Amino acid sequence: MEQLKKSRGRKLYGAVAVFLAVNLAAVIIIGVREAAVINRRMQQRAEDTAAQFESVMENYRHSFRLFVEMMRNEIKSSPDPDSIWDFLKGIDSTMLEIEGDTFDGLYMYYQGRYLYSWDTPYSQYEETGYVATERPWYKDAAAGAGEIVFTPPYMSYANHYILTTLSQLQPDGETVFAYDIKMGDIQRLVSSMEEYKKEEILIYDKNGTVIGSTKEDYLGGSLLASMDAVSGAVEAARAELEAADPTDGEQYSKAEEQLRAAEVFCSFRQGFQPEFDRMAGAESETVCVPLNGGRYYGLLLGAGDYHFLVLVPVLSMLTSTLGYWLVPLLLLELLLIYVFSRIGREMKNRELKSAYIELGQTQKRLELALNAAQKAAAIDDLTGLMNFKSFRSQMESCLEQMEDEERGILIMIDGDHFKHINDRYGHSMGDEVIKLTAQMIIGRIRTVDLASRLHGDEFAIFVSNTADYTVARGIIGDINHSIAKEAKRRNMPSITISAGAVVAKRGDSYAALAKAADTALYSAKETHNGGFAYNG
Question: For position 373, what pLDDT does the model report?
Fold first, then answer.
């Protein structure tokens, strides 16, 4: 009897050793695979942010080209500087109407004179020693030699927005057109792109100035400035608050806001600086870093003059990648349990059978929960349409599976005057308008077509089995008609949607198609009244 007990004990210890060894090997293998998946996801996240950012920057360039074309035509017809100055002041309201709160003023250097659209008397510029040809916007334009250039942006704490200047040297080698813009579209883009819970995204330029961030207090701060300079900015803001007049509510409030933002950014830099240096040394590679009392996956992507910093909480990322590590681990555990149950069946057949059934039920519940989580991750919460990530994945699958002669049409859609509804009626009504637009889109496409809300008031449709742009035009026309009719019935404010389309075929890339459709969309939106254009 004693010998039997010893034999069973040795078998038990051997079984435990095998169980632990197999699990250790599995954890190592799954961990390596999971790390690769996370790195791909982080890289894709940064690249998607860069692509969306470039779309916004191209929109700024498009606006500036419109201004340049207007000024070139005016100079041809009336070259006198005084006439040009009058024209410049006259189109100020026109540009404000076209661009909304993005626009912040027009000016130029022409025939040795500084001309501008503001009402400020010229004597004020003379008194401060303002010399146009010595200003950054003129020097940058001259260095650009005819290219549209962005002067390094900065934070206007008086108005709490990031300002930059677009400028361009004209063919005569002396004239420079310049255009001030508020870069709020970038902040709105960053605010709308959250894919993971508590995710943080920062966009900064080559000087380190933060021009887009999920934390607004970081705007205008510099990630590349020395800590002495960052601390100095806090002291300067504190001195400005002490000098501010408490009876001047607006000025005092802005001084308080500037100090608070400077302190928050300084605290962020102090806690994050070593991790930021690590990420800068491993650009485009995922690094695990401590932040705000938790652990984050971080990746830094450089793209020309701009950098994109993505920080995702470890728990949020692991939750979104359950299918890559939890399911294999569960299946392995189930397999091991099954094997050991077979070995010990003679001893405890009834108990092990009951445990096996219970584990099978647990596996089913986990699989159902996983399927539900994966389905929820692919859907836009507000509209029920596919989100950007899911739509891109489905589009790429469609492009791979197309026959050589098969065609489809990608349509990029943007709401006209949607900001006006948010400003006038509030974001709740804006959300209702977006949901109505999504309903009308779903009602006008077939089950074989795809529809997605990309972000904000931007949507996309992929129409299968056609290369006829009249079909796409008809769909957009029907949607606009339905939105107007249904909005009136529901007593809601109505918007129109403008669209740009491009034909897709087997082998095309989603990124190239989206860029071509966006180009057509820019053309369609010039009317801001339900326009349609196609590329190709």
Answer: 43
Lookup: tokens for 126: 């003379």
Tokens, residue 498 = 């403008």
SS (H, E, C) 268-299: HHHHHHHHHHHHHHCCCCCEEEEECCEEEEEE
Give, for 405, the enclosing helix (H) or strand (E): none
Question: What 3-state class would DSSP assign to 187?
Answer: helix
Overall pTM surpassing 0.70 (yes/no): no
Which residues, listed in sequence order, are joined to residue 408 by a DSSP beta bridge? 464, 504
330 three-class SS: helix
**Residue 77, beta-bridge partner list:** none
> Could you give the CA distance from residue 400 to residue 38 in angstroms, rounded to a whole number?
24
CB atoms within 10 A of CB 467: 15
More confident residue, 481 or 419: 481
478-487 contacts: CB < 8 A, separation 24 or more? Answer: 478/444, 479/437, 479/440, 479/441, 479/444, 480/530, 482/440, 482/443, 482/444, 483/436, 483/437, 483/440, 486/436, 486/439, 486/440, 487/433, 487/436
β strands within 139-234, DSSP E: 149-156, 161-169, 176-182, 200-205, 210-213
Sorted by sequence, the CB contacts under 8 Å of residue 343 that are 6+ apart come out as 15
CA distance 212 to 202: 6
pLDDT band at 92 (very low <50, low <70, confident <90, very high): confident
Cα gap 486→109, rounded to integer Å: 51
d(CA 25, CA 38): 20
Nearest to 323, CA basis, from 38, 20, 48: 38
- How many Cα neighbours within 13 Å face the side chain of 466? 20
* 97 vs 228, higher pLDDT: 228
Mean pLDDT of 371-382: 63
| CA distance to 34, 54, 57, 410, per residue, from 511 (Å) | 26, 12, 16, 11
d(CA 88, CA 176): 13
Q: Closest Cα partner for 118 from 132, 131, 104, 128?
A: 104
Say if strands 532-534 and 496-505 run parallel, antiparallel, or are unpaired. Answer: parallel
Alpha-carbon distance of 481 to 440, in angstroms, equals 9
Mean of pLDDT over the chain: 85
Secondary structure of residue 159 in the 3-state scheme? coil
User: Confidence class of residue 403 from pLDDT cuts 50, 70 and 90?
Assistant: very high
For the CA atoms of 513, 516, 519, 520, the dihedral, rounded to the nearest 10 degrees, stands at -90
How long is the chain? Answer: 536
**What is the dihedral angle through the alpha carbons of 418, 158, 257, 99, rounded to the nearest 10 degrees?**
10
